[in-house]
């Protein structure tokens, strides 16, 4: 979300009009879920994707038309067998796509992106709201949670992060500003350095902690929100992982891992992944039991960390860790991978 807002703000500030394409509804196994966005300028696609293939091609053509007309559009795409001749894709679902024309330098959208970025970076709660009128330029606004729920009853006690609804006689689309849980990397060694660019590319907010100054160099971790040199025996003096966050422990030794895990188990952090072998796990778990932690508490720890891809190099291990974090994030958003059918399903 932050990257999208930064890209949109930059384009609007440059003064050129931009077309914002958004998947506002999805059924079945369409390529992208509601909330997927793409920015299109007069030269073509500038940022993001709404699913690729012919749907995205059609979306670009529609975006070009909105840039010429100065109006917006709302269109449904059928990706089922009966829609094959029209769109050329059979994914077994349907997509509703909104394409909004946002004039360059427009005060409303610029103010909305600024407010949304401030809220997101401060860890606040709010909604980015679009009025999906097709006869005029697009509308984009940001409302903090309380204000949004006062104005739109559809957003009160809303569990979904993306909502297509009707209000004031028109269709609207709202997307909650939720920063994906932060990832805390404890240890700045070879695997962490391979993992950092993957996390940045996958839109995770992450921080790196190491107790050695030469391993806590910001330049080595592109995209990190923070790189700290901190005592592993007192990590909670430096960070405060919450229930929506992820902790990945990959320090330089068993005893440092042990100290970090002792402290993490006293926090509500939602995921604790630890790099290491079965022998290392047995050693650390025995010491944790001696420190008073129950088997139930130890069940919170995932070790070895990452999906079992079979890799051994730092880059391969980093890939397995990143894959597991993506899987966990998808599960939190209600997505499930159906292996037998080879498709992403909600």
UniProtKB/TrEMBL annotation:
Residue ranges constituting the XdhC Rossmann domain according to the UniProt record: 183-325
Question: Do you know which Pfam families this protein is assigned to?
Answer: XdhC_C (PF13478), XdhC_CoxI (PF02625)
User: Which Gene3D superfamilies does the annotation name?
Assistant: NAD(P)-binding Rossmann-like Domain (3.40.50.720)
**Domain of life of the organism encoding this protein:** Bacteria
For the XdhC- CoxI domain, which residue ranges apply? 12-77
Matching entries from InterPro entries are given as: MoCofactor_Util/Proc, XdhC_CoxI, XdhC_Rossmann_dom
Record protein name field? Xanthine and CO dehydrogenases maturation factor, XdhC/CoxF family
The species is: Intestinimonas butyriciproducens
Lineage of the species this protein comes from: Bacteria, Bacillati, Bacillota, Clostridia, Eubacteriales
């Amino acid at each position: 979300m932050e990257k999208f807002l930064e890209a949109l703000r930059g384009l609007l500030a440059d003064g050129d009009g931009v077309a914002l394409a958004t998947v506002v509804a999805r059924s079945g196994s369409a390529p992208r879920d509601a909330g997927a966005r793409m920015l299109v300028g007069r030269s073509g696609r500038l940022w993001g994707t709404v699913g690729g293939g012919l749907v995205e091609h059609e979306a670009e053509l529609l975006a070009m038309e909105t840039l010429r007309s100065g109006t917006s559009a709302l269109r449904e795409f059928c990706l089922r067998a009966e829609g094959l001749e029209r769109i050329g894709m059979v994914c077994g679902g349907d997509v509703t796509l909104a394409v909004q024309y946002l004039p360059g330098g427009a005060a409303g959208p610029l103010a909305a992106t600024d407010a949304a970025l401030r809220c997101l970076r401060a860890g606040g709660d709010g909604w980015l709201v679009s009025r999906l009128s097709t006869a005029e330029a697009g509308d984009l606004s940001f409302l903090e949670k309380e204000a949004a729920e006062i104005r739109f009853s559809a957003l009160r006690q809303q569990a979904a992060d993306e909502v297509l609804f009707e209000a004031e006689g028109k269709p609207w689309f709202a997307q909650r500003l939720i920063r994906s849980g932060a990832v805390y990397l404890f240890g700045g060694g070879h695997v962490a350095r391979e993992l950092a660019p993957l996390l940045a590319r996958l839109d995770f907010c992450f921080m790196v902690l190491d107790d050695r100054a030469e391993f806590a160099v910001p330049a080595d971790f592109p995209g990190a929100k923070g790189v700290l040199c901190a005592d592993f025996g007192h990590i909670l003096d430096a960070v405060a992982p919450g229930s929506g966050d992820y902790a990945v422990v990959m320090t330089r030794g068993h005893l440092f891992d042990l100290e970090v895990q002792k402290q993490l188990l006293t926090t509500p952090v939602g995921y604790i992944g630890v790099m290491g072998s079965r022998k290392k796990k047995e050693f650390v778990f025995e010491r944790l039991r001696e420190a008073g932690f129950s088997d139930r508490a130890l069940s919170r720890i995932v070790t070895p960390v990452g999906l079992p891809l079979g890799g051994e190099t730092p880059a391969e291990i980093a890939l397995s860790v990143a894959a597991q974090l993506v899987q966990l994030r998808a599960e939190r958003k209600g997505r499930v991978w159906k292996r037998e059918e080879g498709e992403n399903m909600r």
